[in-house]
Amino acid sequence: SIPLGYFGGIGRSSMQGILVKGANYLDVLASVTSVAFDKTGTLTEGVFKVNDIVPNEGVSKERLLEFAAAAEFHSTHPIATSIVDIYTAQGKPVAESLISEHTVRSGMGVDVTYDGHTVLVGNNALMKKYGIEFENEDYDGTIAHIAIDGKYAGYIVIGDSIRTDARQAVSALKNLGVNEVVMLTGDNEKVATAVSKSLGLDGFHAGLLPEDKVDLFDKLTRGSEQSGKVAFVGDGINDAPVIARADVGIAMGALGSDAAVETADVVLMVDSPLKVAEAISIAKQTRRIVW
Ligand code: ADP
Ligand code: MG
Questions:
Q1: Would the CB of 186 count as within 6 Å of ligand 1?
Q2: What integer is the mean pLDDT of 256-266?
Q3: Mean pLDDT value across residues 38-51
Q4: Which of 22, 55, 105, 176 could form a disulfide with 59 if both were Cys (CB 3.0 to 4.6 A apart)?
Q5: Does the beta carbon of 39 lie inside 6 Å of ligand 1?
Q6: Residue 43 alpha carbon to ligand 2 centre in Å
Q7: Nearest atom in ligand 1 to 41's CA
Q8: What range does the record give for the signal peptide (predicted)?
Q9: Are residues 170 and 40 in the same domain?
Q10: Is 34 touching ligand 1 by the criterion CB < 6 Å?
Q11: What percent of the chain has pLDDT over 70?
């Protein structure tokens, strides 16, 4: 039978907007020594702003944005939303009827047919996958490259903000005895470095595809001390497999996908990484009462 104290722990958690899906996860939470966070939407707001539009030679800014917005029109990724929004803000609706094919490349971008042209919008990995050549500059931000009919057409620089309580969340975890707080992201090295420095993380891995995140997480789990448990915190966009795999998989908030909420062991009803520390704290207190 389950000791009564566990029900108290689950009840206390739920009052704080932390849904723990079983008494066993309180035990796991209390033993967490490593926490891996997904970046976009978890440590950051997951709301992007377009900062710059840089067409390649022979392409106009207007055409670049029109094609990018059309390609992103059916995508739900926050990067897509930011590009579609800045285009429609100019008073021009996306010509939906001209979009004939739409393929999402998870963790990379999109592949779309628009007005008879093949349009790719995404990161380095997407360009590489399709053999698109371009000069890799020293970009400052998250980059959406655009290729039209197999030729590089330019890029859009977008930015996301770090959540205001993310830094506090990292130090709270440290104070609870978590000795390793890291970040996994599909975004580029430069953005990852900036976020990691700003939050005082112990490490990060950038440029990861969804399947790379799973592999890296497994390595992290094998490397952690024998008794220590490893938590993964994500928003469910491109990271649901890792949430499923973790000793304790934590899905964050309102943006979290249905799949993530279903596979997660713990669901945070509030979009705050600080809730992870709170969950561990309640779990540790519960264990003290139960034992
Ligand atoms: P994170 O790993 O930081 O949580 P995501 O998994 O959501 O981020 O996305 C990883 C990367 O994939 C993004 O940084 C971006 O470069 C690229 N990407 C994903 N979807 C799109 C899209 N619709 N348009 C452009 N780029 C995208
Ligand atoms: Mg993500």
A1: yes
A2: 83
A3: 96
A4: 55
A5: yes
A6: 9
A7: 4
A8: none
A9: yes
A10: no
A11: 95
Does the pLDDT at position 4 exceed 70?
no
Q: What is the dihedral of CA 34, 38, 44, 50, to 10 degrees?
A: 160
Residue type, 250: I
Q: Given this model, what pLDDT does residue 289 score?
A: 77
Across the range 254-279, mean pLDDT stands at 87
Considering its fold, how many domains does the chain have in total? 2
205 plus 151 within the same structural domain: no
Asked if residue 1 has pLDDT above 60, the reply is no
CA distances for 169 relative to 174, 187, 203, 273, angstroms:
9, 21, 15, 6
Domain boundary among 159, 194, 221: 159
Does residue 59 share a domain with residue 185? no
Query: pLDDT tens digit string along 59-95?
Result: 999 999 999 999 999 999 999 999 999 999 999 999 9
Residues 179 and 273 in one domain: yes
Full residue range of the structural domain in which residue 284 is found: 4-45+162-290
Residues 6+ apart with CB under 8 A from 159: 48, 49, 51, 141, 142
Question: Residue 225: pLDDT above 70?
Answer: no
| 211 and 146 within one domain | no
User: Annotated active-site positions, please?
Assistant: 38
The predicted model scores a pTM of 0.93
Domain termination residue (choose one: 107, 135, 159): 159
This complex has an ipTM of: 0.98
The token pair at 107 is 């963790």
Burial 257-271 (b: 16+ CB within 10 A, else e): beebbebbbbbbeeb
Q: State whether 102 and 135 are in the same domain.
A: yes
Q: Kindly report the CATH number assigned to the domain that includes residue 126.
A: 3.40.1110.10
Whose CA is closest to atom 13 on ligand 1?
A: 187
Residue 25: give its domain's CATH number: 3.40.50.1000
The pLDDT value recorded for residue 8 is: 82
Residue 55: closest CA among 122, 123, 144, 117: 144
Distance CA 109, CA 103 (A): 9
